[in-house]
Amino acid sequence: MKKIFSNQYFLLFGRIVIAIVFIYAGAEKITDPKGFSQAIYNYKLLPIQTINFLAITLPWSEIISGILLLFGISVKENASIIASLLFVFIVAVALSLIRGLDIDCGCFGKGNPVGWKKLGENTLMLIICIALMAFDSKIFTLNTKKTD
């Protein structure tokens, strides 16, 4: 299994897929901050005072980390940022499933319900991020630092 996850072409493919997903997701959230803040509110996990701040800042974090990941700049660091976000998303989705909430996940705008599929998608992306953190992605990068 280590051989698969340390394969540079697998890591490149995973890096590009995750980057595109997060750039797209962030862009969708930026275009509808009111809708995204409502999606955050629907989870009923955060104090109301933090929701608007999160609805404005989270999409930019996703876009910036996604762009840097796409171009191979500080791959381990940006993979860890995205992995942290994914961990929070996984916990929020799992809690919503346990509580029986029938809500939109807020991932890509409207029309993406919370469910087992979303939990699986996020878990798979988290595994890829962990592989990127462990093995780095060294091909097709704009990184200027020398690596051994």
SSE diagram, text form:
Blueprint: H1 2-6, H2 8-31, H3 33-42, H4 48-70, H5 75-99, H6 116-135
Helix pairs in contact: 2-4, 2-6, 3-4, 4-5, 5-6
Number of helices: 6
Shape: globular
Care to count the β-strands?
Answer: 0
State the helical fraction. Answer: over 70%
Instruction: Note the main sheet.
Output: none
Poorly predicted runs: none
Q: What is the residue-averaged pLDDT?
A: 89
For the terminal residues, how far apart are their CA atoms? 23 Å
Specify the oligomeric state: single chain
Estimated radius of gyration: 16 Å
Order of helices and strands: HHHHHH
Q: What class would the helix/strand composition place it in?
A: mainly alpha
Portion in strands: under 5%
Tell me about this structure:
It is a single chain. The chain has 148 residues and is mainly α. Helix content is 72%, strand content 0%. The chain is built from 6 helices and no strands. The protein has helices at 2-6, 8-31, 33-42, 48-70, 75-99, 116-135. Helix 2 (8-31) packs across helix 6 (116-135), helix 4 (48-70) crosses helix 5 (75-99) and helix 5 (75-99) packs antiparallel against helix 6. The longest helix has 25 residues, at 75-99. The radius of gyration is 16 Å and the shape is globular. It starts with a helix and ends in a 13-residue tail after the last helix. The model has no long low-confidence stretch (mean pLDDT 89).
